[in-house]
Amino acid sequence: MKVTPMQQSLISHFGEMGSRWGLNRTLGQMYALIVLTEAPLNADQISDALLISRSNVSMGLKELKSWNLIRLHHIPGDRKEYFSAPQDIWEIARTLIIERRKRELDPTLTTFRNALLEKPSNSADEYTQQRVQDMHDLMEMVTIWSTELQNMSSEKLSTLLKLGSGISKIIDAKEKFLKK
Hints:
Belongs to the GbsR family. The chain is mainly alpha-helical and about 180 residues long.
């Protein structure tokens, strides 16, 4: 498989960003290649295009599958497995939100809930619990909000984001109205 200069630039960038998003460089590059390629790819094609070992590709594909970011395809007459990314970018975003929430927010919320169930033994623990309560409440709001976003259609999500600062103006107007 031949990677174009444009694709190569984007693949390199995704590799760099992958490490900032909690993935390794190779995983970021693999996902970029899969997202930016129209036809489903098999492991050999990914290995050849990115000049990485076949075993590294296999491990990366398992990781991408565990994140639910790729889809498996079978081509009649071909025993190889082929992989693609969802065509809808919003679906990818929703999947990332779900998976990051499972891996990051949910365990933290559990830890916070456990801390809040403990009886504070001194003023330092009381203060700690108040701070944990504040963080817990914020994370709960984010979790509820992300769940609502996940259930919206791609069109509604796009419209919501296009509203941008308009939402702030609506809230400001509501606050002014309520003060009267």
